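ugh finaly. both done.
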Amino acid sequence: MQEILIRAAVPSEKEELEALQLRASLTNPGDRDAMLANPDAIEVPAEQLGGGRVFLAEMEGAIVGFAAVEPRADGETELDGLFVEPGMRRLGIGRLLVEHSAQVARKNGSAALHVIGNQHAQEFYIACGFNEIGTTLTRFGVGLLFKKAL
């Protein structure tokens, strides 16, 4: 496998990241109809990009995934988005992005990394060291709450 570089995304990559987010979201049967009905849900906020809180995975110069983190009011960190190019899944890219996000959170003094996921991501997050801690209502239904101690 080729080397994967994790780096901060830049604002000029916004459209490319949103296109990847859409492709990734449409491959999940539970997300497809909701994404098609709510295209405004596909967005990488400019504040995240400008604030250095979006990290992408590059392989041979191509973006193959990205993650976004947000500080939480409780001092911990939220993994606000994690998307991998559909044809590049199961190669460890998502796990690398989770680990990079955890390192960033640790560096910023966070004791835990949180994420809201859905059923199709449950196994992945548990394999990455998250514990399922509950559920929450999201715009698209019930989401699973996960927490990873740092």
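ok and the 2nd:
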Amino acid sequence: MTYSIAFAGKGGVGKTTLCALTASVLSTKGLVLAIDADPNSNLGEKLGIAYKETIGGMREDMLKEIEKIPIGMSKQEYIELRIRELIAEGEKIDLLVMGRPEGKGCYCYVNSILRNNIDILSGMYRYVVMDNEAGLEHLSRRTTRNVDLLIIVSDATKQGLETAKRIFSLSEQLELSIGKRMIVANMVENGKEDWIKKVANEKGIELHAIMPFDKELSNRVADNLPVSDYKGPVHEAIKKKILSGVI
């Protein structure tokens, strides 16, 4: 049975990096589908997986080529085939990139088929991890739905925690199908653990995990290098504090 994890949070908190590292940890236990649902797509760079096309681009092309679908093939079958062609395959992690939001025109029918086919495709993997865009829009549009674990990422700031709290609250108000919600403080420097716990407590936030700041990982991110082979303290913290009970 597929286990799905989605990441949310404001910009600049390192959620894409944590998503890539989580996919890397999970890949030691089974095949992973990584879905980049952030229009500013860079999950592939973090994973070291190159891709050629996005679902957004495919959707635009399909609306133009709807009359060119081979005889005897339904629209659903054609879209399923095209989605499979979009998957960039890695060794133990495959990547599917959503791309930019749709432009003008009605995409309701196409989007409905896309969602259904992605759900079917996800069932072929042991784990699915999704990196969402910054902010709250993906929740209100129900991009993040039917997930086992929603990881809401904050940095070591009061503003980051306040945003995480709002996302947590919104995810409850929208009655999304989410098994568990987890607020994670990321990039917490040595010696600031007690401070971030104190701030979270004052704001009525249940802080589920603290990810340490690691200079090696920070340098990799700054140099735009893949992090999938990183095995430092953040990697270990993900295994012990986020994925405990999952793997």
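summary for the 2nd one i guess: The first helix runs from residue 15 to 26.
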